[in-house]
Amino acid sequence: MTDGREQFSSRLGFTMAATGSAVGLGNIWGFPTQAANNGGAAFLLVYVVFACLLAYPALMAELVIGRHTRSNMVTALPLIATHRRGQFLGKLAGLYGVLVASLILAFYAIVAGWMMAHILAPSARVIGLPAFSLWLTDFSVSRNVIFCLIFSVLTALVVANGVRDGIERWSTRLMPVLLGLIVLLIGYVFTQDGAMQGLKVYLIPDFSAMTEPRLLINAMGQAFFSLSLGVGTMLIYGSYIRQDENLPIAAALVTLIDTGIAFLAGLLIIPAVFVALKQGVEIYDDYGSLVAGPDLILQTLPVLFGSLGVAGVAVAAVFFLLMTIAALTSSISMLEVPVAFGMEQMKLSRCKSTWLIGAIIFALSGLIAIYFDWLFVAVVDLTTKYSQPLLAAILCIFAGWILHRDRLLGEIRSGYESVESSWFWKIWPPYIRFVCPMLIIILFVQGIIGQ
Ligand code: PHE
Question: How many Cβ atoms sit within 10 Å of the Cβ of residue 97?
Answer without folding.
Answer: 31
